[in-house]
Amino acid sequence: MSLPDWLKSYRRDDLAGDLIAGFVVAVMLIPQSLAYALMAGLPAQVGLYASVLPIMAYAAFGSSMSLAVGPVAVLSLMTASALHGLAPPGSAQYLALAAGLAALSGAMLLLFGLLRFGFLAHLLSHPVISGFISGSAVLILLGQLKPLLGLNLQGQGGLGLLLHLAQALPTAHGATALIGLSSLLLLALARRHLAPLLRAFGLPSKPSDLLARLAPMLVVITAILVVRFWSLDGPGGVSVVGPVPAGLPGWPGQWPALAQWSELLLPAALLALVGFVESVSVAQSLALRKQQRIDPDRELLGLGAANLASALSGGYPVTGGFARSVVNDAAGARTPLAGVMAAVLMLVVVLFLTPWFRPLPHAVLAATIMIAVSSLIDVQTLRQAWHYDRADALSLIGTFLGVLLIGVEAGILIGVVLSLGALVWRSTRPHMAVVGRLAGSEHFRNIARHRVETLPGLIALRIDESLFFANASVVEARIESLLQAQPQTRIFLIIGSAINQIDATALAMLTELERSLGQRGILLWLAEIKGPVMDRLRGTGLGERLEGRVFLSTHEAFLAAQERLHARQDAPIGTTGDA
After folding, report:
1. Which of 129, 366, 453, 543 is placed for a possible disulfide with 538 were both Cys, Cβ 3.0 to 4.6 Å?
2. For residues 565 and 567, what is the distance between their CA atoms, to the nearest angstrom?
3. Chain centre to alpha carbon of residue 355
4. What is the pLDDT of residues 360-374, one digit of tens each?
5. Angle formed by the axes of helices 215-230 and 205-213, to 10°?
6. What is the dihedral of CA 191, 148, 343, 314, to 10 degrees?
């Protein structure tokens, strides 16, 4: 295998930025990887394993210069949801299922990359993605209340957790709740006020922002010291991570049973799709800032390789994380070498520093997750969609509620169905405008919006949608209503500048329409039909009968109609007013 392009042309000037960014991302990744693994129902060290080889694999195949790959909150939640009920969380079988999920997801991504299916990045609309991520964020926040407060909390899903929350609050563990709420408060204050405070003391803006991003690691270290100093992790004490094995990550030693692979197929496909869409959106937004280019097909290959590497090293599904990627870029990353450096540092942690994490309270990791995912709740997109397009807004709300009330897989499937339903609904109600000519020009506009010239005996209808089975009857009904309103019509002109396709059902409708109009002494004309559409029409009976009645432009058809109608009845040009 040849060296990646970025490595072939690597410049010495980029090394300092990559080294600094790698260190910053590694420090940020340590608490996140531990927390996200626990959220996925896995031992804490699995998050560390998923932060070594996957990063290196992406650097070899991916196209983004700034994307930081590793465990993320949404995929951790989806992993827990997919494996719920298949095996006890944390068991050897559960670890094998998580690795199998990563392997399946990676294989799908690699296959899609080889087939150049990068267009899959556009399969989910922005409102659906927003609703899914916002719903997942709320689920994650609710799920972290148990470790944050030391609750004896039962129930699955958002509704179940909410129903049991009030009953469980009296069972909160005092020391755990104190540590958790203090950590949550400190992280929230650091996110909002630490950077401005550091700037007020004279520190430059960029270092201030980076130090504020590293606050979770400082909180983690403080909590570890507090627990060790006061021995809070004894029997009945604060719940802690416990022993974290040191050593190189490796294959978990077993794969899922044959019957279980089929149960993982749909979750793996959804994980692959969501991870790819989330990763590409982050990579593209960062690339635009630097006038760089992202290749979606190579992103599929990079993420596929990362997930396969995660599976073979005892990890679970990974993708590009938004917050880490932004920090990576802000810290000065120039190439994927920054990610490689972060992976090397994570390997050092895995080999030598894991004993330090034994007294780390689960409450602190819960607070870290809650602060990280709180920014994922996207109210702004809902507000904009509600004012701009109610169908998109309803897709967002449906996806959000589906995630909360039914589950993450069902939620995203609901979102896809609603999004496709909205697309079909719009297509079944195409915009159609009767047009006339702007005086003294060759331009034609909607008679309801502009003062235009019209010809008595001519109806010129512009159809702003492809014609297919779902809207053919609607178009036919509109044409008939126009003819009933103007019984003197002798020429009906369809303007097809926006028609990209005419399917068999629409062709049958037009054929019957042409025959029916002919029986009533009305000619059917076409104008501005696109080449590919016209090529298909020529081989049909309708195309043969329309010979000589298809015009390159609406203006040409208007002049021909004027001449024909004038020859029959000396028809004048009329004028419509503004509506």
Report:
1. 543
2. 5
3. 38
4. 999 999 999 999 999
5. 40
6. -160
